[in-house]
Protein backbone atom coordinates (compact mmCIF):
# COMPACT_ATOMS: atom_id res chain seq x y z
CA UNK A 1 0.00 0.00 0.00
CA UNK A 2 1.23 3.49 -0.80
CA UNK A 3 1.89 5.84 2.10
CA UNK A 4 0.46 8.87 0.25
CA UNK A 5 -2.24 11.01 1.83
CA UNK A 6 -4.51 12.24 -0.95
CA UNK A 7 -6.14 15.60 -0.21
CA UNK A 8 -9.09 16.34 -2.50
CA UNK A 9 -10.42 19.84 -3.03
CA UNK A 10 -14.01 19.12 -4.12
CA UNK A 11 -14.43 22.46 -5.85
CA UNK A 12 -12.86 23.12 -9.24
CA UNK A 13 -10.91 26.26 -8.32
CA UNK A 14 -7.23 25.45 -8.79
CA UNK A 15 -6.17 28.48 -6.75
CA UNK A 16 -7.83 26.93 -3.70
CA UNK A 17 -5.95 23.67 -4.27
CA UNK A 18 -2.68 25.60 -4.60
CA UNK A 19 -3.34 27.32 -1.27
CA UNK A 20 -4.10 23.98 0.38
CA UNK A 21 -0.90 22.51 -1.05
CA UNK A 22 1.11 25.44 0.31
CA UNK A 23 -0.44 24.96 3.75
CA UNK A 24 0.80 21.36 3.79
CA UNK A 25 4.46 22.47 3.92
CA UNK A 26 4.86 22.05 7.74
CA UNK A 27 3.42 18.52 7.50
CA UNK A 28 5.78 17.32 4.77
CA UNK A 29 8.47 15.88 7.00
CA UNK A 30 11.37 13.54 6.35
CA UNK A 31 10.20 9.95 6.63
CA UNK A 32 6.55 10.98 6.70
CA UNK A 33 3.81 10.16 4.21
CA UNK A 34 3.68 11.99 0.92
CA UNK A 35 0.86 14.52 0.64
CA UNK A 36 -0.78 14.92 -2.77
CA UNK A 37 -3.38 17.69 -3.30
CA UNK A 38 -5.92 17.19 -6.08
CA UNK A 39 -8.76 19.23 -7.58
CA UNK A 40 -12.13 17.67 -8.36
CA UNK A 41 -12.58 18.90 -11.92
CA UNK A 42 -16.30 18.12 -11.90
CA UNK A 43 -16.93 20.26 -8.83
CA UNK A 44 -18.44 23.76 -8.83
CA UNK A 45 -16.10 26.78 -8.50
CA UNK A 46 -17.07 26.94 -4.83
CA UNK A 47 -19.21 24.81 -2.53
CA UNK A 48 -21.52 27.48 -1.19
CA UNK A 49 -24.85 25.66 -0.75
CA UNK A 50 -26.25 22.29 0.26
CA UNK A 51 -26.97 21.64 -3.42
CA UNK A 52 -23.29 22.25 -4.24
CA UNK A 53 -22.23 19.91 -1.44
CA UNK A 54 -24.60 17.14 -2.48
CA UNK A 55 -23.66 17.49 -6.14
CA UNK A 56 -20.01 16.52 -5.64
CA UNK A 57 -20.67 13.24 -3.84
CA UNK A 58 -20.72 10.96 -6.88
CA UNK A 59 -17.63 12.43 -8.65
CA UNK A 60 -15.77 12.58 -5.34
CA UNK A 61 -16.38 8.88 -4.75
CA UNK A 62 -15.29 8.08 -8.31
CA UNK A 63 -12.03 9.95 -7.77
CA UNK A 64 -11.41 8.13 -4.50
CA UNK A 65 -11.96 4.77 -6.17
CA UNK A 66 -9.61 5.76 -9.01
CA UNK A 67 -6.85 6.74 -6.55
CA UNK A 68 -7.45 3.97 -4.02
CA UNK A 69 -4.39 1.89 -4.89
CA UNK A 70 -1.99 4.80 -4.42
CA UNK A 71 -3.41 6.21 -1.18
CA UNK A 72 -3.03 5.32 2.46
CA UNK A 73 -5.69 7.87 3.46
CA UNK A 74 -7.94 10.52 1.93
CA UNK A 75 -8.88 13.99 3.13
CA UNK A 76 -11.98 15.80 1.84
CA UNK A 77 -10.89 19.44 1.87
CA UNK A 78 -14.16 21.35 2.15
CA UNK A 79 -15.68 22.60 5.39
CA UNK A 80 -19.04 21.08 4.49
CA UNK A 81 -17.41 17.61 4.58
CA UNK A 82 -19.39 16.80 1.41
CA UNK A 83 -19.88 13.12 0.74
CA UNK A 84 -17.85 12.11 3.78
CA UNK A 85 -19.94 9.10 4.72
CA UNK A 86 -20.40 7.96 1.12
CA UNK A 87 -16.65 8.31 0.59
CA UNK A 88 -16.01 6.04 3.56
CA UNK A 89 -18.05 3.40 1.75
CA UNK A 90 -16.02 3.90 -1.46
CA UNK A 91 -12.73 2.77 0.10
CA UNK A 92 -11.39 0.79 3.03
CA UNK A 93 -8.76 3.49 3.60
CA UNK A 94 -9.34 6.22 6.21
CA UNK A 95 -11.33 9.21 4.89
CA UNK A 96 -11.20 12.37 7.00
CA UNK A 97 -13.31 15.51 6.62
CA UNK A 98 -11.77 18.85 7.43
CA UNK A 99 -14.78 20.24 9.31
CA UNK A 100 -14.93 17.26 11.66
CA UNK A 101 -11.16 17.27 12.20
CA UNK A 102 -10.93 21.05 12.49
CA UNK A 103 -13.63 21.25 15.15
CA UNK A 104 -12.26 18.28 17.10
CA UNK A 105 -8.79 19.83 17.05
CA UNK A 106 -10.18 23.15 18.26
CA UNK A 107 -11.83 21.41 21.20
CA UNK A 108 -8.37 20.40 22.41
CA UNK A 109 -7.09 24.00 22.20
CA UNK A 110 -9.87 25.89 23.93
CA UNK A 111 -13.31 25.63 25.48
CA UNK A 112 -15.25 28.17 23.41
CA UNK A 113 -14.92 27.69 19.67
CA UNK A 114 -15.62 30.38 17.07
CA UNK A 115 -15.84 29.65 13.34
CA UNK A 116 -15.11 32.11 10.55
CA UNK A 117 -17.17 31.21 7.47
CA UNK A 118 -17.18 32.71 4.01
CA UNK A 119 -20.93 33.24 3.43
CA UNK A 120 -23.89 33.61 5.79
CA UNK A 121 -25.88 31.11 3.75
CA UNK A 122 -23.30 28.46 4.65
CA UNK A 123 -23.83 28.91 8.38
CA UNK A 124 -27.12 26.94 8.74
CA UNK A 125 -25.43 23.99 7.01
CA UNK A 126 -22.54 24.21 9.45
CA UNK A 127 -24.88 24.46 12.44
CA UNK A 128 -26.65 21.27 11.39
CA UNK A 129 -23.29 19.52 11.26
CA UNK A 130 -22.18 20.72 14.68
CA UNK A 131 -25.45 19.39 16.07
CA UNK A 132 -24.94 16.04 14.36
CA UNK A 133 -21.44 15.90 15.86
CA UNK A 134 -22.86 16.64 19.31
CA UNK A 135 -20.58 19.65 19.87
CA UNK A 136 -23.00 22.54 19.37
CA UNK A 137 -22.72 23.60 23.03
CA UNK A 138 -19.01 24.37 22.50
CA UNK A 139 -19.54 26.51 19.37
CA UNK A 140 -20.07 30.11 20.53
CA UNK A 141 -20.48 31.56 17.05
CA UNK A 142 -20.18 30.94 13.33
CA UNK A 143 -19.92 34.27 11.53
CA UNK A 144 -19.32 35.00 7.85
CA UNK A 145 -16.95 37.39 6.11
CA UNK A 146 -19.37 37.50 3.13
CA UNK A 147 -16.75 36.89 0.45
CA UNK A 148 -17.20 34.20 -2.19
CA UNK A 149 -14.57 31.61 -3.11
CA UNK A 150 -13.61 33.77 -6.08
CA UNK A 151 -13.41 36.84 -3.89
CA UNK A 152 -10.85 35.23 -1.58
CA UNK A 153 -8.26 36.12 -4.23
CA UNK A 154 -8.34 39.68 -2.82
CA UNK A 155 -5.93 38.99 0.02
CA UNK A 156 -6.07 42.44 1.61
CA UNK A 157 -9.86 42.52 1.85
CA UNK A 158 -10.12 38.87 2.90
CA UNK A 159 -7.60 39.16 5.71
CA UNK A 160 -9.16 42.39 6.96
CA UNK A 161 -12.61 40.84 7.15
CA UNK A 162 -11.25 37.67 8.76
CA UNK A 163 -9.52 39.74 11.43
CA UNK A 164 -12.69 41.78 12.00
CA UNK A 165 -14.89 38.68 12.32
CA UNK A 166 -12.29 36.88 14.43
CA UNK A 167 -12.14 39.87 16.78
CA UNK A 168 -15.96 39.83 17.12
CA UNK A 169 -15.90 36.14 17.97
CA UNK A 170 -13.13 36.69 20.49
CA UNK A 171 -14.44 39.87 22.12
CA UNK A 172 -18.22 39.51 21.85
CA UNK A 173 -18.61 35.73 22.05
CA UNK A 174 -15.50 35.06 24.22
CA UNK A 175 -14.12 32.48 21.78
CA UNK A 176 -10.73 31.24 22.95
CA UNK A 177 -9.96 29.29 19.77
CA UNK A 178 -10.97 29.95 16.17
CA UNK A 179 -11.51 27.66 13.20
CA UNK A 180 -11.30 28.86 9.62
CA UNK A 181 -14.47 27.56 8.00
CA UNK A 182 -13.22 27.22 4.43
CA UNK A 183 -10.24 25.45 2.88
CA UNK A 184 -9.73 28.50 0.66
CA UNK A 185 -8.64 30.49 3.73
CA UNK A 186 -5.60 28.28 4.35
CA UNK A 187 -2.94 30.87 3.51
CA UNK A 188 -4.22 33.33 6.12
CA UNK A 189 -3.84 31.18 9.25
CA UNK A 190 -0.51 32.46 10.57
CA UNK A 191 -1.36 36.13 9.99
CA UNK A 192 -4.79 35.74 11.56
CA UNK A 193 -3.40 34.00 14.65
CA UNK A 194 -0.68 36.62 15.06
CA UNK A 195 -3.22 39.43 14.81
CA UNK A 196 -5.81 37.98 17.21
CA UNK A 197 -3.60 36.29 19.79
CA UNK A 198 -5.65 33.09 20.08
CA UNK A 199 -5.09 29.67 18.46
CA UNK A 200 -6.40 29.49 14.89
CA UNK A 201 -7.07 26.07 13.38
CA UNK A 202 -6.68 25.59 9.63
CA UNK A 203 -8.93 22.55 9.17
CA UNK A 204 -7.11 20.89 6.27
CA UNK A 205 -3.90 20.96 8.30
CA UNK A 206 -5.83 19.46 11.21
CA UNK A 207 -7.22 16.66 9.03
CA UNK A 208 -3.90 15.85 7.40
CA UNK A 209 -2.16 15.85 10.80
CA UNK A 210 -4.71 13.27 11.97
CA UNK A 211 -4.25 11.27 8.76
CA UNK A 212 -0.48 11.20 9.29
CA UNK A 213 -1.02 9.83 12.79
CA UNK A 214 -3.36 7.14 11.52
CA UNK A 215 -0.98 6.08 8.75
CA UNK A 216 2.11 6.06 10.98
CA UNK A 217 0.39 4.23 13.84
CA UNK A 218 -1.48 1.77 11.69
CA UNK A 219 -4.94 3.02 12.71
CA UNK A 220 -6.53 2.09 9.39
Could you list some keywords that capture this structure?
single chain; 220 residues; alpha/beta; Rossmann fold; 2 domains; 4-stranded parallel beta sheet; 8 strands
Q: How would you describe this structure to a colleague?
A:
The protein is an alpha/beta fold and 220 residues long. It has two domains: 4-97 and 204-217, Rossmann fold, CATH 3.40.50.12500; 100-203, 3-Layer(aba) Sandwich (Rossmann fold). It has helices at 14-23, 50-55, 57-67, 84-90, 98-107, 123-133, 155-171, 189-196, 203-217, and strands spanning 4-9, 35-39, 71-76, 95-97, 113-117, 139-144, 177-180, 200-201. It has a four-stranded parallel beta sheet with strand order 2-1-3-4, with helices on both faces. A four-stranded parallel beta sheet has the order 6-5-7-8, with helices on both faces. The radius of gyration is 16 Å and the shape is globular. The model has no long low-confidence stretch (mean pLDDT 96).
